[in-house]
Amino acid sequence: MTKFLLKIFVFFLITLIVFGLYAYAGSVLARQVYGDSTKEQIDKSFTNALSREYNLVFLGNSRVYHGIDPDVFPRRAYNFAHDNDSFNQCYYKLKYLLDNNVKIDTLCLGVDYFEFGLFSSTKNYCYDKYFSTDYQADYNDNSLSEQISNLKRILLNHQFLLLKCAYKVVLNRGHLPDSTSYIKDNGQYIMFGSTGKPDDKIHRNSKMLDIQKRYFEKILQFCSERNIECVLFMMPVRDGEMQSYEDKYLNGFNTYIQDAIAPFGFRYINMSGNELFKDYRNYDDITHLNSNGAKLFTRYFGKELIQHNN
Amino acid sequence: MLFVSFFPQILCGPISKASDLLPQIKSKHRFNYSQAVDGCKYLLWGMALKVCVADRLGVYVDSIYSDYSIHSSSTLMLASIAYSFQIYTDFAGYSFMALGTGKLLGYNLIVNFNRPYLASSVTEFWKKWNISLTQWLTAHIYIPLGGNRKGKFRTYFNIIITFLVSGIWHGANWTFIFWGLIHGIAQCTEKLCGWNKATYGSLKLIFRTFLTFSIVNFAWIYFRMPTLAEGNGVIRRICTLKGSGVELPTDENLIGVIAAIAILLIFDFAPHRESPLPKLFTCSNLKKRRIAYFCVMLAILIFGVFENSNFIYLQF
Predict the structure, then answer these.
(1) What 3-state DSSP class applies to A8?
(2) Which helix (H) or strand (E) element contains residue A20?
(3) A234 CA to chain B: closest CA distance, Å?
(4) How far apart are CA B221 and CA B179, in angstroms?
(5) Which residues pair with A181 in a beta bridge?
(6) Which residues does B87 contact at the CB level (< 8 Å), separation at least 6?
(7) Partners of A233 in the beta sheet?
(8) Is the dihedral of CA B87, B89, B95, B97 positive or negative?
(9) Are A276 and A50 in contact (CB under 8 A)?
(10) What is the DSSP letter of A117?
(11) Contacts B67 to A, Cβ<8 Å
(12) Which member of A11, A22, A160 has the closest CB to residue B293?
């Protein structure tokens, strides 16, 4: 039996070493092909959130993260959104800013038809060090299961990296791409290597989780208590995404938002159907505005906001 | 007590006969090196089928079937084929792992799958698919009903009843009953036309294998969908050629799916062999064997899906 166990041990050891080298090579090449890793983006975003001067902050999911360029916004603003964020992450981000004495008077909170249905834990391995233990408590993960899921996530993140990067390099005839995706100092994410197509489509779930409703209402309450003006806005949504939703759900969603903000006197600007932003050439894919689209939209939104204020 | 609670097979088989397992439980066990190595081989191969093939295909299948009404007929057709391979590798993977665990503990369990999609009739398919369940249904339903001893009509009736029971065994849902009915009717038709016995030339054999796979694939659609109406919806959409273009798996999933199917085809279309394991796992060349184990293990790590997966057959 000793011989058997020893052989099994050696087998797994060699496999893990080889896989470790594969994963390491993948992460090095990925940095050159894709740019900042998720962890680097989030760390940079949190660092800049405390060091920059602004009094308006944008929170929301990846559509805000890609689609809002604070450089062209008429006020001093910071984009503190990130991929897969929903209202629980937004709440703790807002709390993080205020706990760190960032003076903000306006919160522009991105809402999306599918956002209440998300309860993502994919970025928790980055967020855990910034948020209080209350945030982690929602996920019901004990430290062991979280460690295991983090390990799985790291494993999954690296699985195809080397293959994908090698594929991209081969596509570029042996050269690394000229530009890689990066996060700007103002918090906006600039993506390279993907362009929208006319027939892009995506399926979205139409559900609203109680936990996200609870956090959404907590954000409104929190802003009201701290005298922060909260402006809810919805980014433009392309037809290939809108077809996921039934009218009944859309009406119910918008009624819920209006009813939730009414006691606080906050505003809701829904630009999902705006025809100015339907052109696929303004997008990186079905759902994210590209840097040009983001500039156009941010300027438009800035004007809308001022108009509403007047 | 030990027989019914033998953990490697308790979740979803294989269904061992008491006469096979009890003598093994009663006999004394000592560590057997070659049996333990065999067990590890089955575990490794079962794991590869499950996480590299079944779960990788599952990512694509779930994305399509979650809302079939927005996908084109060709996409649905592709997803249905992917599901056929998914359920095969999922269940066969589990069975190999159960077999491997048994061998590590010193027990020999029944081999439950023998390249079922290469069957040239539905009758033959059931001799290669979930073999232990087929044997159980034959012994406890078909034979007690009279088997083929009471005339042609009664034989067909017994087959239909057996497969209806097989459907109900999988779950209290009309979809499973209909799935069983399709298999029952297909076997009766084969018996009626003599297709279950006939030998074929290579071209005819290929055609019959393709036809058998098509029937089985068609039945799997009902097996997969939550309701009969949704199963009909998928079939209707496929038949009426709704939509255009094929939606392929995206990005890394495409690489994964191609690798998954390649693994399966290399394995299943290999020349006839006695062991259900890949030939490289059992060849006499030690170096080749070690490289094969290592490559499969690495494939599991690189192409495997490790999140939100469960064995399909656990629900039955």
Answers:
(1) helix
(2) helix A2-34
(3) 25
(4) 9
(5) A35
(6) B54, B220, B223, B224, B312
(7) A110, A269
(8) negative
(9) no
(10) G
(11) 203
(12) A11
- Tens digit of each residue's pLDDT (9 = 90 or more) over B104-139: 888 888 888 888 888 889 999 999 998 988 999 999
Chain segment B34-62, per-residue pLDDT in tens: 899 999 999 999 998 888 888 888 888 88
Cβ neighbours of A137 (radius 10 Å): 9
Instruction: Report yes or no: A119 and A86 within 8 Å, Cβ to Cβ.
Output: yes
From B67's Cα to the closest Cα of chain A, the distance in A is 8
What does the pLDDT read at residue A143? 61
Residues of A within an 8 Å Cβ radius of B = 1, 3-4, 8, 11, 14-15, 18-19, 22, 152, 155-156, 159-160, 163-164, 167, 201, 203, 243
Interchain CB distance below 8 Å, B297 and A11: yes
Neighbouring C-beta atoms of residue A268, cutoff 10 Å: 17
Q: pLDDT category, A209, cuts 50, 70, 90? A: very high
Cα(B219)–Cα(B211) distance, integer angstroms: 12
Average pLDDT over residues B289-314: 77
Closest residue of chain A to B31, computed from CA coordinates: A1
Q: Which residue of B has its CA nearest to A23?
A: B302
In this predicted structure, the answer to whether residue A275 has a pLDDT above a threshold of 60 is yes
User: Rounded to a whole number, what is the distance in Å from the CA of A138 to chain B's nearest CA?
Assistant: 19
Contacts of B285 (CB under 8 A, 6+ apart): none
Alpha-carbon gap, residue B78 to A231, rounded angstroms: 45
Helix (H) or strand (E) holding A109: strand A106-110
Q: Are B222 and B185 in contact (CB under 8 A)?
A: no
Of the CA atoms within 13 Å of residue B8, those in its CB half-sphere come to 25
Contacts of A18 in chain B (CB under 8 A): 294, 298
Reduce the secondary structure of chain B to three states and give it as a string.
Answer: CCCCCCHHHHCCCCCCCHHHHHHHHHCCCCCCHHHHHHHHHHHHHHHHHHHHHHHHHHHHHHHHHCCHHHCCHHHHHHHHHHHHHHHHHHHHHHHHHHHHHHHHHCCCCCCCCCCHHHCCCHHHHHHHCCHHHHHHHHHHHHCCCCCCCCCHHHHHHHHHHHHHHHHHHHCCCHHHHHHHHHHHHHHHHHHHHCCCCCCCCHHHHHHHHHHHHHHHHHHHHHHHCCCHHHHHHHHHHHHCCCCCCCCCCCHHHHHHHHHHHHHHHHHHCCCCCCCCCCHHHHCCCHHHHHHHHHHHHHHHHHHCCCCCCCCHHHHC
How many other C-beta atoms lie within 10 A of the C-beta of residue A94?
A: 24
Exposure b/e, B200-213, CB count within 10 A at least 16 = b? eeeeeeeebbeebb
Please tell me what DSSP assigns to residue A176: P
- Tell me the catalytic residues of B: 170
